[in-house]
Design brief:
single chain; alpha/beta; Metallo-beta-lactamase, Chain A; six-stranded mixed sheet; 25% helix
């Protein structure tokens, strides 16, 4: 494995027979994280040959059900019969508020091993494995995107996006400038709008998720 390996676990909103709700797995040499945790994430991790017990943290972009509904199963699998002593869950305040009851259903006995960490736009998270910058995506009042920097590489994840005015575009562009990879919503904004953001930010590769088809995302260079 190189500095980071990414796997699309789910790229849609409502699950279908061929496609799960949104979640992306990032695997580093010594740990793994997931960005968003839609329904079926635990099963998709198994199919990808990954273990929930290897997770260090979960990053939630916002509180909508197609981004958080799989969290209970992932937490249960990560902490049951393992020696994992801590699992961090990052996200905006409302996402954490909505996610807690989903986890409490099955993870009551090891709830104290969870670390709920509220983040907001412009917050910076530093770990031994990566640096993560949080920024607004304007889908909801508190929705966030995440820019991960590791070994000189920059990976940006937007989750769902809203563009209420031109300043929203400028804000997102300023955070994802020169990213090696940008993963963008293509349902709440159009593929053309996502491509314009990527072009203005000089992004090398753009992946589009949650469009109208059931195909896996195709890179646009």
């Amino acid at each position: 494995m190189g500095l980071c390996c990414g796997t699309f676990l789910g790229t849609g909103s409502v699950p279908t027979a061929e496609r799960n709700s949104q979640s992306i797995l990032l695997q580093f040499p010594e740990t793994s994280i997931i960005v968003d945790c839609g329904e079926g994430t635990q099963q998709q991790m198994l199919k990808a040959g990954a273990r929930c017990a290897d997770l260090d943290s979960v990053f939630l972009t916002h509180h909508h059900i197609d981004h958080i509904y799989g969290l209970g199963g992932v937490v249960y699998a990560a902490l049951l019969h393992t020696d994992l002593d801590r699992l961090a869950i990052y996200g905006p305040a409302l996402a954490l508020k909505k996610a807690r009851p989903l986890v409490a259903v099955g993870a009551t006995s090891f709830y104290d091993r969870l670390e709920w960490i509220e983040v907001a736009t412009r917050d910076v998270i530093r770990t031994p494995y990566f640096r993560c910058t949080c920024f607004a995506t304007f889908h909801t009042e508190t929705s966030l995107g995440y820019l991960f920097e590791v070994g000189g590489a920059k990976l940006a994840f937007l989750g769902d996006v809203g563009l209420p005015d031109p300043s929203a575009v400028e804000t997102i562009v300023s955070f994802v400038e020169d990213a090696d990879v940008l993963v963008s919503d293509a349902a709440h904004i159009s593929a053309v709008q996502a491509a314009r953001i990527a072009r203005r930010a000089r992004v090398k590769v753009l992946y589009l998720m949650q469009g109208l088809t059931n195909r896996m995302p195709t890179p646009c260079t």
